[in-house]
Design goal:
Aminopeptidase; elongated; 16 helices; alpha/beta; 2 domains; six-stranded mixed beta sheet; binds zinc ion; single chain
């Protein structure tokens, strides 16, 4: 996409679409005034008739045959001015881009008032990309050219970096599981690391054996696709500064293993690597934005299938940190993979860890499709994540980590078992399992089973991978950098 900051009058824009973002209490004001004058008061009449009121996410498309240099006028509602936020501007711009994306090659100029420029541009990137990566004729197209009125070149770049990183996460989730498997994800990560200048270590099967990642290896055994553990390394801080670790679950396809899922529960299981994809997208944005802090991104990549060699119910695995795990459900595989990856993060000296995983259906039952559950062993670090999420408008809700939930994952034959007693509180018993592998390190687990993957489209984003929490992770890391400076 060709992206430019611009300052000219809307009347001068030779584009397909002039997109005017309007606050609900403002009436015909700002850039609308000039356009209204040119159109002989048409916008004022539209407003007075109540056909457009500027309420959030409202949209009104007007054709301008020969009336102005632009071919169409797209009026979009930003809602009340005192509710204006990065999130609001991002979503409204995304909705506009999605509406204009029904054809390719289009040019648009956005007039959204002052502020929130990077967020708006990020949204325009998100709205124009969809899940139809394998269709011969795409049904959703990115803009060919985007002009943003009143922004700086730096704002534009920032918005592009973030929007393209969110879209990278979405693309990795949306690609089908015959394209996306541990080795292919590792290849994508190698390419990314070369492009943006991140350090990278790819652990293949031999290295995983050497490193004692027996839990991760056991989950991978059912597939002919070999597992990988990949570590991305960003150095923005002092050499001796402990890194923040971002850890992602990367089950590139989850059949459930011998605890086989029914077809209905399996059909979207390409999304079970969304945690890893989120970490990858965030690491890309971090490498481009260059905050002054050290960050490592670790992803455990496996495919969970069935075969004569697959792990079984009743198996006891010895995890990397030495704890033994009794397997009582092979569909609770994400936590088994993460057990080893979290141990690597601890060993690498991380002083704060956040992990992201499409971990439990129970989290969906508790919080619905749009809210991520967060669970922690450290109130302050959890607050940092809640603050970053609030800044980006992504929704998180803390679930309690009472010790009684931990009793449920105690095993009679091993140190720990990979499921609780029955289904109740399943999001939390999963977190209690993970907590066993972070030692004393401040840690937050984000269960993104709901928001990572959309069953149906929204006005501002296509269905499929949502890229949720890339923006929160980037914000979190930037906040860590400014705290370190202060
Ligand atoms: Zn599973």
């Amino acid at each position: 996409m060709h992206l430019v900051a611009c300052s000219e009058s809307p009347l001068e824009q030779e584009v397909d679409f002039l997109v005017l973002g309007i606050h609900s209490e403002e009436g015909v004001a700002g850039p609308m005034l000039e356009v209204d004058h040119e159109l002989g008061g048409a916008l004022r009449r539209l407003w007075e008739n109540g056909d457009f009121s500027g309420k959030s996410m409202e949209a009104q498309l007007l054709a301008l045959p020969g009336l102005m240099k632009a071919r169409f006028l797209l009026l979009v509602g930003l809602g009340p001015k005192d509710e204006r936020s990065d999130e609001r501007v991002m979503k409204v711009a995304a909705m506009a881009a999605k509406k204009m994306g029904d054809q390719g090659g289009r040019k648009a100029a956005f007039y959204f008032g002052s502020g929130n420029v990077a967020a708006g541009i990020c949204g325009a990137f998100i709205g124009g990309h969809g899940q139809d990566l394998c269709r011969t004729e795409s049904s959703l197209h990115p803009l060919a050219e985007l002009r943003w009125h009143g922004g700086s070149d730096e704002d534009c770049q920032q918005g592009r970096d973030l929007g393209e990183s969110v879209n990278l996460t979405r693309r990795l989730v949306n690609l089908p599981p015959n394209h996306i498997y541990p080795e292919s994800v590792a290849r994508e990560m190698q390419q990314l690391a070369d492009e943006v200048g991140l350090g990278i270590e790819i652990w293949d099967e031999d290295r995983l054996v050497e490193e004692n990642c027996q839990a991760l290896l056991a989950v991978a055994r059912g597939s002919v696709r070999k597992p990988r553990l990949v570590i991305l390394n960003y150095k923005g801080g002092a050499e001796d500064q402990a890194p923040v670790a971002l850890v992602g679950k990367g089950v590139t396809f989850d059949s459930g293993g011998y605890s086989l899922k029914p077809s209905d529960g399996m059909k979207d299981m390409k999304c079970d690597m969304a945690g890893a994809a989120t970490v990858i997208g965030a690491m890309r944005a971090i490498a481009l934005r260059k905050p002054q802090v050290n960050v490592i991104g670790l992803v455990g990549l496996v495919e969970n299938l069935v075969s004569g060699d697959a792990y079984k119910l009743g198996d006891v695995l010895k995890s990397r940190n030495g704890k033994t795990i009794e397997i009582l459900n092979t569909d609770a595989e994400g936590r088994v993979v993460l057990a080893d990856v979290l141990d690597v993060a601890v060993e690498r000296g991380a002083d704060r860890i956040v992990d992201l995983a499409t971990l439990t259906g129970a989290c969906l039952v508790a919080l619905g499709m749009d809210v991520a559950g967060i669970m922690t062993n450290h109130a302050d670090w959890c607050q940092s994540i809640q603050n970053a999420a609030a800044q980006t408008g992504e929704q998180v809700w803390e679930l309690p980590m009472f010790p009684e939930f931990g009793e449920q994952v105690q095993s009679k034959v091993a140190d720990i078992k990979n499921v609780g007693n029955g289904r109740w509180g399943g999001a939390i018993t999963a977190a209690k399992f993970l907590e066993e592998f972070v030692r004393e390190t401040p840690w937050v687990h984000i269960d993104i089973a709901g928001p990572a993957y959309l069953d149906s489209e929204k006005a501002w984003i296509d269905a499929g991978g949502s890229g949720a929490f890339v923006r929160t992770l980037v914000q979190l890391v930037e906040n860590c950098a400014s705290e370190a400076k202060a």
